[in-house]
Amino acid sequence: MIDLSPFIRPGDTVFLGQGTGEPQTLFEALVAQRQILGPLSIFMGACFTDILRPEHADVLRAGSYGTLGTTRALAAAGALDIYPIHIARIAQSIISGAIACDVALVQLSPKGPNGKHSLGPINDYMRAAIAKARVVIAEVNAAIPWTYGAELPALDTLALTIETDRPPAELASRPATALESAIAANIAAIVPDGATLQVGIGGTIDALLGCLKDRRDLGIHSGTIGDSVLDLIEAGVITNAQKPIDAGVTVTGSLFGTSRLMDAARENPAFRVEPFEYTHAAGVLAQIPNLFAINSAVEVDITGQVNAEAANGRYIGAVGGQIDFMHAANAAERGCSIIALPSTAAGGAASRIRGSVDMVTCARADVDFVVTEYGVADLRGRCLRDRMRDMIGISAPAFREALERESHARSRRGF
Q: Model-level pTM?
C-alpha cells in the first residue's frame, strides 16, 4: 500500500482528477488511510467509480461543482458540498486561492512524442491544481492515452510518482430509449450541414448523433464527448472542415467514454483535449459562426427559464459549462442554443415543464429552442405570451390544462 502520510497533512484540501482522469490507485489509498491522514477536504468532479462512499464522510468531506455520476449518492447523504460555479472558472479560482488546493492527486499518461506526460482523457482544472498545490502526487497509467492539447511541461516537483496499468474509469454508452430517440429526432431537425456541435453525453446525445448520419461536414467543439462521436467521424460526417479555428480537429475538454474513444484519441492530432479555459472561452467560441449548443435540463418553466441543478429540494445537476456555450451560440452568426429534456419525470407523475422552476441556471433570454418528445418550441423573438403557448404545446398532454391556468395567471401579472 502506498503511504501518503509523509505528504498529506490534517486539514488539507486534496484535488482529484475526475471522470476518466481519476487516479484510482491513489484515491483508494487516500480513502483507506483517511483515519491517519484526516480530517481532509476533497474536491472532485464527475465520478464513475464508487471508491468514495457516504460512510467515508467520517473523515473526508467531499466538494464538487455538481452531482455527476456516483457523487449523487454522496449528495443524497448530505456528504457533498456543492460549488455553484462555471466549470471553466474553477482553474482561476484555484490559482487565486478562492478554492483551496494543498494536494493534487493526478493521473498522467506515459511520456508521449514530445518526451513529456499528458493529462490524457481530460484536461480540466488539474493543470491549475498542479501549479498551485504544495504537494503533487502522480499516478502514471500506461492504459490511458497521451493526447494532444493535454500535454504538460516537465514535472520536476512531483513529491511521489507511482506507475499503474489499470483500465481507466469508463462511461459506457447504452442503447437509447424510445423517449430519448424521439427527443433526438426533434433536435436533429434543427441541425444543418456544417454545424459545429457542443454536445454532452448520455442516451439522448447518442441517439441524436445517430440521427445525423445524413449531414455533411459537421464539427465538434465541446466540453465533453463520448464514444458516439466516433461513428460519425468514421462515417465521414464529422470532418471539422468548416470550423474557422481548429479546422479538421475534434476539440473537447474531456473524453468520457470507453477504451474505443481512448484508442481513437491516442497520439492522434485529429483530436485535441484542451483546457476548459480554452474550450469554454468566450474569445474562442466567438470565432465559431455556426455553433449549435445542445444541453439538457432538470426542468424548464413556461417562459423558457432553465433549471439544470436541482429538483424537489435535492441537488442533482451542475451549472457546468452550458451557460458559456449558450451565450456563444446566441451570439454566433448562424448558431443557436438548444435545451432538450423529457416532458415528464417520476414515471410521468410530474411535468418537467412547469409554471415556475426551483432555481434558474440559464436565463430565458439565452434559450433559442426547447425540445421534448412532443416537439420543438422556437422561442427566438417571441413575447412571453407566445412563449408560454409554445412551451405548453410541447409539454405532456396530461399537464397542459394546469399549465394553461398558470399561463393565464402569469399573463394577468404581466410576466
A: 0.95
